[in-house]
Amino acid sequence: MIDPSALHWLALVGGILLTSVSQVLLKLGAGAGRSFARAFLNRCTVTGYVLFLAVTVLNIFAMKAIPLRTVTAATSLTYAVAVGMGHRFLGEIVTRRMILGVALIIVGICVFSLAGLQS
Q1: Is residue 44 within 8 Å of residue 25, measured between CB atoms?
Q2: In the predicted model, what is the mean pLDDT of residues 39-54?
Q3: Would you list the DSSP string of 4-26?
Q4: Residue partners of 9: CB distance under 8 A and separation at least 6
Q5: What pLDDT is stored for residue 114 in this prediction?
Q6: Residue 91 region, left (φ>0) first, then alpha (ψ -120 to 50), else beta?
Q7: CA dist list (Å): 60 to 3, 16, 22, 80, 109
Q8: Which of 39, 30, 22 shows the shortest CA–CA distance to 85?
Q9: Both ends of the chain: CA-CA distance in Å?
Q10: What is the pLDDT of residues 75-104, one digit of tens each?
Q11: pLDDT interval class at 119 (50, 70, 90)
Q12: What is the spatial distance between Cα 86 and Cα 80, in angstroms, rounded to a whole number?
């Protein structure tokens, strides 16, 4: 049997990953049509928004057992995951500044988490 708190953490991680997938889908959808209506009403864009709705449900579930400050800090990992997915699936170039930014986000999360241990 899975520990109930593990399910909340799994929901949080799933929400982080799905957010990045949603962003990739929205990027694909934005380039899919010449008009605003085509960009907004295509399969990728609609799927991206549906996934964002799923992320909302996952985050609400995660917040039942995980403190808000922890959820908020962890969701900033979405930026790091989005850089990787953008590179992998969209062929976007990862620059040194992007790598530095991702490193700063990760260091910030670590510092934030360590500060929480001392409170």
Answers
A1: yes
A2: 92
A3: HHHHHHHHHHHHHHHHHHHHHHH
A4: 62, 66
A5: 81
A6: left
A7: 18, 13, 18, 22, 21
A8: 22
A9: 32
A10: 999 999 999 999 999 999 999 999 999 999
A11: low
A12: 10
CB-CB contact of 112 with 74 (8 Å): no
Q: Which amino acid is at 11?
A: A
* Structure tokens that stand for 27 in this block: 């990027």
Helix or strand holding residue 89 (H, E): helix 77-90
Residues 6+ apart with CB under 8 A from 77: 16, 105, 106, 109
Tokens of 15: 């929400």
Distance CA 108, CA 119 (A): 17
Closest CA to 109 of 62, 68, 74, 83: 74
Backbone angles phi, psi at 19, to 5 degrees: -60, -45
